[in-house]
Amino acid sequence: MYNLPNILISTVFVFFCAFPVFAAGGKTLIPPTDFEAYDTPSDNGKGVSLRWPASPSESIDTEYVVFVSRNIDAPFVTEALRINSQTMYEDNSDFKYHYAEIDPENILRKSSAQNNQIRKKEKYYFKLAITSGSSIVETGKLASALPKSDWFDWKKLNNFVLMISFVALVLFFINHARKSPNLFIRKISGLDAIDEALGRATEMGKPALFVHGLNGMGSISTIAAVNILGKIAFRIAEYDTTLKVANIDPIVMSVSQEVVKESYMEAGRPDAYVEDNIFLAASEQFPYVAAVSGIMVREKPATNFFMGYFYAESLILAETGANTGAIQIAATDSYTQLPFFITTCDYTLIGEELYAASAYLSREPLLLGSLRAQDIGKGILIVALVVGTILTTLGVGFVSYLFMAG
Asked: What is this structure's pTM?
């Protein structure tokens, strides 16, 4: 006869011993064999890096949990990190490791109101556990780390080297432009046609119209347009032709008035400057378009300049000017409006040609040198992209690290 009480006791004992196995989906949870915490290198002194080898128990239902505490003897109840066991790998040639960076001070501050006060730098203690369902197994090793700030972020050394190289390139070409004012810049037909357009306006006795676009003075395209306006105003003062500048922004209008006035004084014709010719046409998009189109139809300017950033009004303005028979020169970095300008204008400056225009017209060494250095820098980047693509295709991937953000 079997002893029934002994059988019941043995069954209960086996059940409770095997419960973690059942809770873990039929396999025993094996914690990682190692766990380390250390100061995150090249940071602001707040980060701690955690690293541990992968466990054989990893599955889609298994998670790693890291607990943090300020005191080694205090209970570890604050979760610093919880991730799926099959994520956040750090590849290693021999074995897979998990890697994570955390800010323990921020985590502890959020976890309890009493920890909101600012503390001095101190060591933090960490425990790692692997969990699945209601079963959790901790590693036997306790890790600790003291965050420290660093003077230099070595991960961004490549950015620093590239910045210094580019600055040196700019300074070199600025110095070269001072010694050689005829520094070569690719010919831009639209800018070479400015003299022809202004000469036509002078012969016909009609004004030239300048339109900035719709952006305010904080836009780089508007700044570039104002620089071009200064050069055009200087030529117009020499030709003794009327210049009209239609504005949509009062600040841009004020800046334009000063720029045109300065250009007239530089040309020795301050008496020819008329402040009312630089005016505010309207303060909203389509009223502005209607006002400028009305000027084109009534006064029929011989030359129209569209310089700056444009929106849906570009085709209305350019088509109206084309119907009046004006020579039209446009420049914009708004790629959505370029097709309309290319179709309706005689000359169109595309994208960065708008920014290069002031250097092209003025031939100032500072602008010329900067422009030439930018072109050389772009050429270097294009070569690096081509060479890097070829090397990466051949399995040589170190080039990609030279241009990483860090």
From this structure: 0.64
